[in-house]
Design goal:
It is built from 22 helices and 15 strands. By secondary structure, it is α/β, with parallel strands linked by helices. The radius of gyration is 26 Å and the shape is elongated.
Length: 545
């Protein structure tokens, strides 16, 4: 049994390191004085009190590892996004992503990871050494620590009480870390439980879908829905970008480009399910009891397929993909090697259309422009150089943008190949492309990537293109004309894609709301909303203020 100055330093370091996120949040959230005071004193006092119950400081350090994990997670989040707490989406991202994506992301924010390691790894190592040496704190120290911690807790409670008489009263589950994060973790567990029961809660759901067309066409209808990944509208030349990132789309006949389209979520596990279903941010909870657009097309007599260049992740994307007659993931779980390029999806599409005749609906879920950008395209698409990314920092923005623009150039190639493949097998074709969300590229010098608790315009403004064949244009002239007329209107992709695809395929269901279809004369500019961490719809215009 040993006691030395290092033992007491370890205890102080534990409490101080756990309080760092609270100090950061006071600054980033610009909290009122009494809320800020409470946000520091209450957690710090609680950490000090909990760590005073045992003389074995090493064991105490490791018993408090859950708090260390949350603190480290919060610091990385603050480094990446500059503000806010760990939200529900962040926890859900942990269980719906894969190790490959996590590794790419952490590699891109290496400086933030290094900061966390420098703060918490020495504390954990010190705890391990203290356990090995059976280091203990003196009782006099512990008694003093308890008195100080109780005094801090009392001051924190007084600050909480005083704040209740101000214009901004404190709400612990919203304003105090880690209570707010633990609350969000509980919400994410509730969401995961509901998702796990999806087969049960959606059982028996039907769209009552049927074809209502009276048009006579000389070829089966082929509808392909291409879902992009992390592609923001601002970097598409066909949408006005200064660089020629879309040489194929820009010269394509039959393409309608929507200039003001927004996603209602900046996270994949919410945005893609909204694209594939009739729900949006105003009624997202209905997703637990509905099927996807794939089932609607199946009911209407279409053969259906779902091809993905992402991995199955036990989310609604996987549930919906399994509804298709053919469901295939280009890279299955456990398969080693570099992720295939999105060209593999075009090959899957060509083979499927070759083997299947008749009306067909195919969903292609790409890997698009997901970080690490330079891994998303072959060498021949390295047009914008340099595109090597040593680390994702504002100083390396030029290389980041070059690599990102190369992913858009490759996406342009993929879409052109998809359209040519459809045209090769059917003269009556439709291809719709949009992305799940966009991306920040240090445009303001601070923000990078997506899924931030407070979204930016670049994370929400997405490309939306609809291509129709010449035969389809002749048989649906009025619908195509309306598409072009509405191309400059405000569009919520989350609200309109499902309804637009069904209407363009002449399918009627009991959930079809023509006011949401951009191919209908009754379409109005949508009130675009963003789905927050807590599933509460918030107007995009409010968020962007």
């Amino acid at each position: 049994m040993k006691r030395n100055i290092g033992t007491y330093i370890l205890m102080v370091a534990l409490v101080v390191s756990l309080t760092i996120p609270n100090l950061a949040l006071v600054v980033t959230e610009r909290q009122p004085f009494f809320i800020a005071l409470c946000n520091v004193l209450l957690p710090c006092g609680l950490y000090a009190l909990l760590s005073s119950f045992s003389r074995r400081v090493g064991r105490t350090v490791w018993l408090m590892f859950p708090f260390i994990f949350l603190a480290a997670f919060q610091i990385v989040l603050t480094y990446l996004f500059g503000r806010s707490i760990i939200g529900v989406d962040m926890f859900l991202n942990l269980v719906t992503t894969n190790a490959e994506e996590v590794g790419e992301m952490l590699g891109g924010i290496i400086y933030g990871v290094v900061i966390v390691f420098c703060i918490y790894v020495p504390v954990l190592i010190g705890g391990y050494i203290a356990i090995r040496h059976k280091a203990r704190l003196g009782m006099r120290w512990l008694m003093c620590q308890r008195k100080v911690s109780l005094a801090m807790l009392l001051c924190g409670v007084m600050s909480w009480f005083i704040s209740s008489f101000t214009s901004s009263p404190l709400v612990v589950k919203d304003d105090v870390f880690p209570a707010n994060v633990i609350y969000n973790a509980g919400l994410s567990c509730e969401r995961m439980y509901r998702s796990a029961r999806y087969d049960e809660t959606s059982m028996g759901f039907v769209f009552n879908a049927r074809r209502v067309t009276t048009e006579v066409v000389d070829s089966p209808m082929v509808v392909v829905f291409v879902i992009g990944e992390t592609s923001r509208a601002a970097n598409f030349a066909v949408a006005g970008y200064s660089r020629n990132t879309t040489p194929n789309l820009s010269s394509l006949q039959g393409l309608v480009s929507f200039s003001d389209a927004m996603s209602e979520s900046n996270t994949t596990h919410k945005s893609v399910p909204m694209l594939l279903s009739s729900v949006d941010a105003t009624n997202f909870d209905d997703i637990y009891k509905q099927k996807s657009i794939i089932t609607a097309f199946k009911e209407a007599g279409f053969k259906t397929a779902f091809f993905s260049n992402q991995k199955p992740n036990h989310s609604f994307i996987e549930f919906f993909g399994n509804e298709a007659d053919t469901c295939c993931y280009v890279k299955e779980p456990g398969q080693k090697g570099k992720k295939p390029y999105d060209k593999s999806l075009v090959d899957c599409l060509g083979q499927y259309l070759k083997e299947n005749t008749g009306d067909t609906f195919v969903v292609l879920h790409t890997y698009g422009s997901h970080f690490n950008y330079s891994d998303r395209y072959p060498a021949e698409f390295r047009r914008f150089l340099p595109d090597e990314i040593p680390a994702a920092t504002p100083e390396n923005r030029a290389s980041l943008v070059n690599a990102y623009d190369n992913t858009i150039l490759y996406t342009d190639y993929i879409l052109d190949m998809v359209i040519k493949t459809v045209g090769r097998f059917s003269s009556n074709g439709i291809v719709l492309y949009t992305s799940d969300h966009g991306e920040d590229l240090f445009d303001d010098g601070h923000h990078f990537m997506h899924a931030s608790p407070v979204p930016s315009l670049h994370q929400l403004h997405v490309p939306l293109f609809v291509w129709v064949s010449s035969s389809y244009t002749l048989s649906h002239e009025s619908m195509v004309s309306i598409l072009r007329q509405n191309s400059g209107k405000k569009v919520s992709t989350s609200s309109s894609v499902f309804h637009t695809l069904l209407q363009m395929a002449d399918i009627q269901t009991h959930v079809l709301d023509k006011k949401k279809s951009i191919a209908d004369t009754s379409f109005r500019e949508t009130e675009r909303i963003f789905i927050t961490d807590r599933n509460t719809p918030v107007a995009i215009s409010h968020i962007m203020e």
